[in-house]
Amino acid sequence: MAKAAVYTISREDAIVRVDFLQSPEPEDMLAVMDELGSMPDSSLRLYVMIQAEVMLSTAEVREGAKIARSYEYQPSRVAVVAPGSITYGISRIFKVFRESEQTEFDVFRELDEARAWLRA
After folding, report:
1. Per-domain residue ranges for the chain?
2. What is the sign, positive or negative, of the torsion defined by CA atoms of 44, 33, 68, 83?
3. What is the pLDDT of residues 10-67, one digit of tens each?
4. CATH topology of domain 7-119
């Protein structure tokens, strides 16, 4: 039986949007990073976690951030929308490990606030 889609990727003008449809496993997060890593013109990224909670350990978060920073192409801004407290907290931890000189990263509870920050 095929696994149900975990995420979708779409565009909102210059923003590449990733909607998680269910809670991702670490391998799902890596699949998203691989797909986005090969996408041209994806300097603004929006991860939407409204329908899903992320349940990752600190070690998994640290490893994911390390992998994200290793991609040759780095986005200039990344926003995560995480209204749930668990995902919000995990995303804030990811932010600490993910930010770099090339990439600003922030976490929001509201979609409109994240979009505004990305476009600023």
Report:
1. 7-119
2. positive
3. 998 899 999 999 988 888 888 888 888 777 777 899 999 998 888 888 999 999 888 8
4. Transcription Regulator spoIIAA (3.30.750)
CA-to-CA distance for 76 and 120, rounded, in angstroms? 12
What is the distance between the alpha carbons of residues 79 and 88, in angstroms, rounded to a whole number? 12
Alpha carbon distances (Å) from 39 to 9, 49, 52, 56, 74 = 11, 21, 24, 25, 11
CA neighbor of 90 nearest in space, from 115, 65, 69: 65
How far is residue 8's CA from residue 50's CA, in Å, rounded to a whole number?
13
Q: pLDDT tens across 63-110, in order?
A: 988 888 887 677 789 999 999 999 999 999 999 988 887 889 999 999
Whole-number Å distance between alpha carbons of 6 and 104: 25
